[in-house]
């Protein structure tokens, strides 16, 4: 069974947490993947290892780590892959895949143009 682990940075702002929760629920409703768990790199919980464990506890054999990061900074290119590699050691029967950061997708230009037009 597949799962999506929606990984965000984390914020002290409650509104940011609510937006991530809403995004996770929207992904759950609109995808064919029934396990969608948010997780945070820092500041908030669950952390990434806890989010992974929640997915595994729900029966995930494959976890798609969905990076909610705009660019390929240190968190997206080093910190999170390091955490996922440790998770692979703890969960050898689980397949992990990590998405590219949002800024590396062509559709982002279209989204930015839409935002500019709406401003």
What brief labels describe this structure?
alpha/beta; four-stranded parallel β-sheet; 119 residues; 47% helix; globular; Rossmann fold
- How would you state the average pLDDT, rounded? 95
- Summed up, the domain count is 1
Strand content: 15-25%
- Low-pLDDT segments: none
What's the N-to-C terminus distance? 41 Å
SSE ordering: EHEHEHEH
The name of the CATH architecture is: 3-Layer(aba) Sandwich
- Report Rg: 15 Å
Structural class: alpha/beta
Q: Characterize the biggest β-sheet.
A: 4 strands, parallel
Shape: globular
Strand order of the largest sheet: 2-1-3-4
The CATH C-level name is: Alpha Beta
Task: Kindly describe this structure.
Strands 2-1-3-4 form a 4-stranded parallel beta sheet, sandwiched between helices. It has a single domain, classed as Rossmann fold (3-Layer(aba) Sandwich), CATH 3.40.50. The radius of gyration is 15 Å and the shape is globular. The termini are far apart. It is of the alpha/beta class and 119 residues long. Strand 1, helix 1 and strand 2 form a beta-alpha-beta unit. The protein contains 4 helices and 4 strands; from the N terminus they run E-H-E-H-E-H-E-H.
